[in-house]
Amino acid sequence: AGELPLAGRRVVVSAGGTREPLDPVRFLGNRSSGKQGFALAEVAAARGAEVVLVAANSSLPAPAGVKVVPVETALELESAVTDAARDADVVVMAAAVADFRPATYVDTKIKKSHDPGDPDAAPTIELVRNPDILAGLVRDRGDEANPVIVGFAAETGDASGSVLDHGRDKLVRKGSDLLVVNEVGVDRTFGADDNTVHILRQGSSHVVDVGPATKHDVAAAVWDAVQEIL
Ligand code: C5P
């Protein structure tokens, strides 16, 4: 029997969507289901890799043979991914990471109004930036070839450029080896079972178009592209 293509490789996949708490009962979140990241972890394990799946707020079952590290916030996801990335051959950032978090966390439930003189007052939520985890991984790697780093991007075409134009700009800006560009629009991608993506490679004009395909088939195409780099 031939050896599995990812045998002996350590891979890290992030999945799901981060939640940024405001108080014990409320958070800022997003609609990521985690399905694409879980499919990536499942396919990597089936191809023989040792897989750590850093899963943000997903209720999906752990894929066979995959170590799941559950996290909630962007900062927790950053620390779990950076830890696991230290001895990894590949890091795939499929999670939807909140760009901002509330500047302060209040450890008691925020009341409708604090002001007895103005019972209709509403609070203002101040936000601060979260770190760009993908950019941090690229920065920390320096001139090393390891790990191979894969980013995801949800893009829509608009007057300033097509989905692919925006994807190419983002690939150069982020500095990852691959960027998987998701075409998003009304009723597309979030929570859906299938996906249309374009896989872009740093320094190459070649594009791999995938789909509409299941998230499992998209995952297989992403690992095929990673295997070409390894
Ligand atoms: O810039 P944008 O959010 O479109 O980039 C998406 C890519 O960057 C994804 O791979 C996502 O996991 C990653 N990301 C990150 N940290 C953030 C925001 C996005 O690693 N704060």
TrEMBL record:
The keyword Metal-binding applies. It comes from the Bacteria. One of its GO terms (biological process) is coenzyme A biosynthetic process. Pathway: Cofactor biosynthesis; coenzyme A biosynthesis; CoA from (R)-pantothenate: step 3/5; Cofactor biosynthesis; coenzyme A biosynthesis; CoA from (R)-pantothenate: step 2/5. Binds 1 FMN per subunit. Residues 6-228 form the DNA/pantothenate metabolism flavoprotein C-terminal domain. Residues 11-230 are annotated as: Phosphopantothenate--cysteine ligase. Keywords: Decarboxylase, Flavoprotein, FMN, Ligase, Lyase, Magnesium, Metal-binding, Multifunctional enzyme. One of its GO terms (cellular component) is phosphopantothenoylcysteine decarboxylase complex. Transmembrane segments: none annotated. One of its GO terms (molecular function) is metal ion binding. It catalyses: (R)-4'-phosphopantothenate + L-cysteine + CTP = N-[(R)-4-phosphopantothenoyl]-L-cysteine + CMP + diphosphate + H(+); N-[(R)-4-phosphopantothenoyl]-L-cysteine + H(+) = (R)-4'-phosphopantetheine + CO2. CTP binds at D99, K109, P131, D132, I133, L134, F152, K170, K174. Coiled coil: none annotated. Its EC number is 4.1.1.36, 6.3.2.5. Its cofactor is Mg(2+); FMN. Catalyzes two sequential steps in the biosynthesis of coenzyme A. In the first step cysteine is conjugated to 4'-phosphopantothenate to form 4-phosphopantothenoylcysteine. In the second step the latter compound is decarboxylated to form 4'-phosphopantotheine. In the C-terminal section; belongs to the PPC synthetase family. In the N-terminal section; belongs to the HFCD (homo-oligomeric flavin containing Cys decarboxylase) superfamily. This is Coenzyme A biosynthesis bifunctional protein CoaBC. It comes from Knoellia koreensis. The chain holds residues 184 to 413 of 413 of the full protein.
